[in-house]
Amino acid sequence: MRRAVTIQDVARRAGVSTATVSRALALPDQVTDATRQSVMSAIRETGYTPNAAARSLRAKSTKMVLVLLPGIGNSFFTPVLNALEEVFSEGGYGVLIGYTRQNRSRETHYARVIRAGQVDGVLVVTGNVPRDEEFVAVPATVPMSLMFSELPGTAQFSVFDVANRTASATMVRYLIEQGHRRIACIPGAEGSLESDERLAGYQEALSAAGLPIDPDLIWRGASNFDFISGERAAARYFALAEKPTAVFAAADEIALGFMRALKNHGIRIPEDVSVVGFDDTEYAVHYDPALTTMRQPRTEMGRLAARDLLRRMEAKGEAVPTSHVRLPCELVIRESVRPLV
Amino acid sequence: MRRAVTIQDVARRAGVSTATVSRALALPDQVTDATRQSVMSAIRETGYTPNAAARSLRAKSTKMVLVLLPGIGNSFFTPVLNALEEVFSEGGYGVLIGYTRQNRSRETHYARVIRAGQVDGVLVVTGNVPRDEEFVAVPATVPMSLMFSELPGTAQFSVFDVANRTASATMVRYLIEQGHRRIACIPGAEGSLESDERLAGYQEALSAAGLPIDPDLIWRGASNFDFISGERAAARYFALAEKPTAVFAAADEIALGFMRALKNHGIRIPEDVSVVGFDDTEYAVHYDPALTTMRQPRTEMGRLAARDLLRRMEAKGEAVPTSHVRLPCELVIRESVRPLV
DNA sequence: CCAAAACTTGTAATCGATTACATCTACTGT
DNA sequence: ACAGTAGATGTAATCGATTACAAGTTTTGG
After folding, report:
1. B4 phi and psi, to 5 degrees?
2. What domains are there in chain A, each with its CATH number?
3. Judging by DSSP bridges, how do beta strands B144-147 and B274-276 pair with one another?
4. Which residues of B111-129 are buried (b: 16+ CB within 10 A; e: fewer)?
5. What digits encode the pLDDT tens for the residues A82-106?
6. Backbone region of residue A153 per phi and psi (left: phi > 0; alpha: psi in -120 to 50; beta: other values)
7. Residue A261 confidence (pLDDT)
8. What number of CA atoms fall less than 13 Å from residue A245's CA on the CB side?
9. Contact predicate A299/A278, CB 8 Å
10. From B94, which residue of chain A is nearest by alpha-carbon distance?
11. Cβ-defined contact of B256 to A4 (cutoff 8 Å)
């Protein structure tokens, strides 16, 4: 581990003071052409790169963002993280990731990272906003934003989400238009905001169409939006005497797990039962049958959220208006629904 | 943005010097019980958290690791990143992610991050080791490791990979044992080490069994290990007069894309053609038919790589032996191969 | 040709923590 | 009772960059 090159080394080599080196880099036209040249070549010769810690200490800014993810290994977040990294690193910010794993002690850990001034901003990408008390103090320290979730009654952070209820209602209405009357729902991760909203949308659409809400057709109890939840829901399907003709799963992976379990028992989709999902993840289109689903613009949401946070981080001290952006979902019709007409 | 609490504030409040506060935290038994108590309660009252930049500057260590990913949005890396974050954050290190996107300028960017002393270690998780000249200097500065890839002739970094060639040969031998004689190969991302090795394993197994290597059955030209590559390979299949009875895809997503394209044309798997993949990603088991594949222990590899890097980062200055760990793959037999006997 | 303005560069304080060294107190053993 | 030592705490240097202010130099205008 060689000693690193410092600004002192460059200054000595170029025959100037450290202040001049610093200026040659940060404020090039406050310095003579000649000095800038010699500073630059000294930098090139020594291979100097300004030390990040020293800079952060003085500037009180680390040029880093903390992205908090639930970290259940769900590939739903892959394109989101991709978009975030793209925009942030383009804006000169590094991306520190933190998986909370719905775990209090890990939330506390990351709250401490924030308080240590290790990041200039925080982006919470999860339905479960950290409950740690330490987090209530965060927005006073650094800008913070929420994605795919909402915390009612706070203008402290920007929020980027979709109209889960409306979108779910649209989806169920579509099933009704296709002639379905007996529609089941797998609402996904119990207690999550998305789950609640999507279930509400399902009920709303049924009621609006004058259809009854049958508790036997609401298959709760999932702890996540994953395959296993779909597989478990299949047991509910088989246990039922009077089967539904369509199933609305609150996430694509749930739908896929459900379909897989049904196909294992020789049930055909969509011939025997129609299935729809939510999210439009990568696998929805490649599955057989290709899944009809509600697309969440994940990449775009990531870009918008990142740009907003970027703007707020740069606006040092000034009034920082937060925003609540609710993006439209799009019904993507594929092959997993059979019209009953 | 309130001014943050510093060690000065705590010292003043506890009526001691900053040195004592620092010691009360770092070396608790060099301090009287009484002073420690009063320092601790001053910390609690003020809500003090040591500033990361100041600490890094002095200690010449940031407690951060840079994880470099290709960033093609491939969910192959999801469990790897998960495992890395788990082990690193448990070890007190933050995880900075960087998507190189096979892009020179982004590699340069991250080389600069390393040289700025922003991280204590680097983990390259990609088949394509950065080619930027700046990277050759990295191992002299901080420990660096490679996952899923290898750079021949360097003992400078630890390597964690699988025996791609042997594993591929095993897979193809399995197909031969099942009675297949005409076996095609979709080798995946052109020019990548994994691709080359897996293709070599395929050829090795054929030769060992005395079977001819038919260039018409090697469907090159993929730029990635993704669905689209599989779909494109399907065109090669259809164009062929004498079809293969089995296809070895160098990645699960390629296999899935290929199967999907075939099924679209009414071809049944495995009845009409057998298909196998490589990796055992989440979707292999949930697809219909469930995919026979070669499991790479991604989570375990992530854990091992992280622990190794952790060890090397902690061993300040001392002799740091690097390791080359080659983990075994496991043939996972599911439903996508039909025995020809 | 000289004072004022504009420009360039240097000196030194600063950011917040850690730590070598100095100092002071209390205790030990003879 | 006193030198010697161990233990607790304080003082101040240090890490590497940025920047307010000072000082020196050049240009401008009358």
Report:
1. -80, 155
2. 7-50 (1.10.260.40), 61-161+298-326 (3.40.50.2300), 164-296 (3.40.50.2300)
3. unpaired
4. bebbbbbbbbbbbbbbbbb
5. 999 999 999 999 999 999 888 888 8
6. left
7. 96
8. 14
9. no
10. A96
11. no
User: Which of 284-313 (B) contact A at CB < 8 A?
Assistant: 286-288
The model's pLDDT over B85-140, given as tens digits with 9 standing for 90+, comes to: 999 999 999 999 999 888 888 889 999 999 999 999 999 997 677 777 777 777 77
Match 């289109």 to its residue by tokens: A285
Check residues A139 and A217 and name the one with the higher pLDDT: A217
Q: Which tokens go with A113?
A: 């990272």
Q: How many CB atoms lie within 10 A of CB A25?
A: 17
- List the structure tokens of B174: 């399995």
The Cα B188–Cα B195 span in angstroms is: 6
Check CB contact under 8 Å for A283 and B283: yes
Contact A78 B75 (CB under 8 A): yes
Å from the B32 CA to the D1 C1': 29
**Which residues of chain B neighbour A78 with C-beta distances below 8 Å?**
73-75, 78
Q: What is the pLDDT along chain B (341 residues), one digit of tens a residue?
A: 567 899 999 999 999 999 999 999 999 989 999 999 999 999 999 999 999 999 999 999 999 999 999 887 778 999 999 999 999 999 999 999 999 888 888 889 999 999 999 999 999 997 677 777 777 777 778 999 999 987 766 778 899 999 999 999 999 999 999 999 999 999 999 888 899 999 999 999 999 999 999 999 999 989 889 999 999 999 999 999 999 999 999 999 999 999 999 999 999 999 999 999 999 998 899 999 999 999 999 999 999 999 999 999 998 666 678 999 999 999 999 999 999 97
- For strands A330-332 and A293-295, give the pairing: antiparallel
Return positions of chain C under 7 A from a protein CB. 8-12, 14-20
> A207 vs chain B: nearest CA distance in angstroms?
34
**Cα of B287 to nearest chain A Cα, Å:** 7
Q: Enumerate residues 162 to 221 of chain A having a beta carbon within 8 A of any beta carbon in chain B.
A: none
The type of residue at B96 is L
Helix axis angle for B33-46 and B18-26, nearest 10°, is 100
Residue type, position B188, single letter: G
Nucleotides of D under 7 A from a protein CB: 8-12, 14-20
CA distance B84 to chain A (A): 10
How many Å apart are B51 CA and D17 C1'? Answer: 16
